[in-house]
Amino acid sequence: MKKSKRSRLKRIMAICTAGIVLFIATACGSEKSILNLAKPKKDNKQTVRMFSPMEKTDPNAENVARSAADKTIRMAEEKLGVTVDYITYTAENYQDKTYDEVTLDRARNDMDDFYLLNPDTVRRLGEEGKLMDLSDLECVKNLRDVVKTANTINGKLVAIPQEIVAYGLFINKDMFDQYQLALPETPEEFLECCRVFKENGIETPIGANRWWLETFVLAQAYADLYNGGNTEAEIEGLNNGTKKYSDYMRPGFEFLKELIERGYIDAKKAYVSEAIEGEGADFLAQKTPIVMAYWGAANTDTAYGNPDFNMLVIGFPSSRGQMPVIPMTGYGIGANAQHMQDAMRVLNVILSDDALKVYTETNKVISPSKNVQVDCIPALKPLNDKIEENVYVLGANAGMKVEQWGNTCLIVRKLLNGATVDECMAEFDRLQQESLE
Question: What backbone phi and psi angles, to 5 degrees, belong to 265?
Fold first, then answer.
């Protein structure tokens, strides 16, 4: 039963952060031995093996449509004279395994040199001692504090991303102006905006799906923890059991329950709706003024990149005002990597300010480097301003023994399906007890 729940969590983690390429990888074919995923190439100290969802079957092939990540890998190859072999999750043998499951197998068996990792995988491999400490890399001195906080385990920085993915509230500013509403800062102000919309004929003020409502909860739960100056001590209290996750989570769940009971969220529709597909049409048609999504959705025409109204992306309501929510992925190097030194050199290049500038300009995302600024569209400026001020909440933190993003998503879905707040809090208490045992 526990194995089944863990499998479900990994699958939900793969969808919950759709803004990150790592989280949307899928596989095809039938399950076979992990050793059949890719035939190991002849040993060459100038070849570095990377496992990721990104396809690059021939590392020497010219490709005019390279992604942002591909461009930085090419920079490393040209500068260092090495070849980076992509070993990808898209092999035919793995329809029944999630990206996380395959990554864990490969990393535990020292099959590759470095990996692109989801938050829970970062935490598990870091705790198992399967990832190198990257603290001495030259690029680390330029990292934002949020990156170090999210991916540090037992004092070791075990993963570094190429981008920071931020979640926020996507607002139809024209509809707010129509009813003379200020953009909400606190939960109380947010409820008042929803009341006005509802009373003026907006049937469902908040468009929601079954994956991202945890952003409301996380913003309220950890606004003080991450912005109150006592982060390390509070996380230590959660990890040793002197503080309870349920005490942090309760206000956010009570807030969601109130939104549902007042009809501001359609719980039944949200429970079965996929991200953006479920609520996107109503938002774009101006039937609902509020949805939640990740940074990249504002740049993508297939999501919210081309609305017929004035759109703004702001943080979620909290006791400290508008609060971005940031989950975190990253590249990690195997502790027993065959080509460890070359892998370190590659990461130093692709995570350098020069490479991150290329990556950021290509994808229009927030850089993990404090020296690289994104030229964001006006709609994203409110969210970006908060992050530049170091105001945020981590939706995933490898230093917490209870995984946050996927677990909170699962428990929010219980609330959508009729569970009480007390029942949801009991689930957090159970997870915390398991982590202590």
Answer: -125, 135
pLDDT tens readout for residues 273-304: 888 888 999 999 999 999 999 998 998 877 89
pLDDT of 115 > 90? The answer is yes
Q: Which residues, at least 6 apart from 43, have a Cβ–Cβ distance to it below 8 Å?
A: 338
Closest alpha carbon to 225 in 255, 248, 241, 246: 248
What is the arithmetic mean of pLDDT over 27-43?
37
Whether 247 and 428 have beta carbons less than 8 Å apart is answered as no
Q: What is the pTM of this model?
A: 0.79
Q: List, in sequence order, every residue forming a beta bridge with 48; answer none if it has no partner.
A: 84
Q: Dihedral, CA atoms, 12, 18, 23, 24, nearest 10 degrees? A: 100
Smallest CA-to-CA distance from 347 within 164, 154, 116 is with 116
Cα separation, 365 vs 376, in Å, equals: 8
Tell me what the pLDDT averaged over the chain comes to: 85
Residue 13 has pLDDT above 70, yes or no: no
| Distance of alpha carbon 248 from alpha carbon 231, whole angstroms | 13
Strand ranges inside 151-299, DSSP E: 152-153, 156-157, 167-172, 206-207, 290-294
Query: Which amino acid type is present at position 146?
Result: V
Beta bridge partners of 131: 334
Confidence of residue 157 (pLDDT cuts 50, 70, 90): very high
CA angle 74, 144, 17 (to 5 degrees): 70
Q: What is the DSSP letter of 41?
A: P
Using the structure block, give the residue that is written with the tokens 């535990």: 108
Which segment of 22-31, 201-210, 212-221 scores lowest on mean pLDDT?
22-31
Q: Phi/psi zone of residue 264: left (φ > 0), alpha (ψ -120 to 50 degrees), beta?
A: alpha
CA distances from 166 to 163, 293, 297, 384, 408 (A): 10, 9, 10, 9, 17
